[in-house]
Amino acid sequence: MNNKISARDVAIVYRGKLDREPVLACHGVDLDVEEGSFVSIVGPSGCGKTTFLYAVDGLLPVNGGEIRVNGKPIHGPGTDRAMVFQSASLLPWRTVWSNILYGVKLKGEYRQGKPAKIESLIDLVGLRGFESRYPSELSGGMQQRANLARALAVDPDILLLDEPFASVDAQTREKLQVELTEIWARTGKTMLFVTHDIAEAVFLSDRVIVFSARPASVRATVRIDIARPRSLETKHSAPLQEYFKQVWSLIESPA
User: What residue numbers bound the domain in which 20 lies?
Assistant: First the structure.
């Protein structure tokens, strides 16, 4: 497989709020994400996972090393990547259908045939019957489905997901996890997923990359050899629990 994302010796420094002293968030990060794969990043709280994801999206510059997407250095956001944030951030005055279409319009790609694509995405994320509803009329899980569809509407090569299910209840979260694996299988997109939830990472992923405490570097990569498709029964199976323990011990044990 080709690598869609490659990071070599990446260092990222940020100042945070109120222009405080610089913080070295990532130092010497080396990793690859293969085309069409699902890779998750986990690590201690505040270690730099989200900072790294923002750098891949081009929202933050790197201060050392290099991140390449499709073999080319990143110089800012690009149409080959789309971000799904923890907060759905849907425009409250737009319907589900209009929110999903919004990114396509910003790209100037609204043309004949796009309405059919939006309708297809509404079906893909399970929002049929809710396309005329406004965000205030949706549950948190439905809002994130619309958020995911909006990201997919611009047809990116890579989907970057920053804890997209963190704000929903546990039952909805598990359902959305299963749905995301199905969407990944149907679209073939490369997905890079950041989460604090180890079980979620193991369930979703082909590989789980474990970051060290800040400044983050790659402590280990765990390949998840569990057959797909995966169901909720898979999530509570003995093999998955063994991977959970392995990743947990890597995060918790001294460097």
Answer: 3-80+156-252
Do 40 and 61 fall into the same domain?
yes
Q: What domain count does the chain have?
A: 2
Alpha helices in the chain (DSSP H): 49-57, 96-106, 114-124, 140-153, 170-187, 198-204, 232-235, 238-252
My answer on whether 161 and 242 are in the same domain is yes
pLDDT in tens, 136-173: 999 999 999 999 999 998 889 999 999 999 888 889 99
- Say how far apart CA 49 and CA 10 lie, in whole Å: 13
8-state DSSP, 47: S
Q: What whole-number distance in Å separates Cα of residue 162 and Cα of residue 148?
A: 11
The pTM of this model reads 0.92
Task: For residues 228 and 162, state if they share a domain.
Answer: yes
Q: DSSP letters of 63-94? A: SEEEEEETTEE--S--TTEEEE-SS----TTS
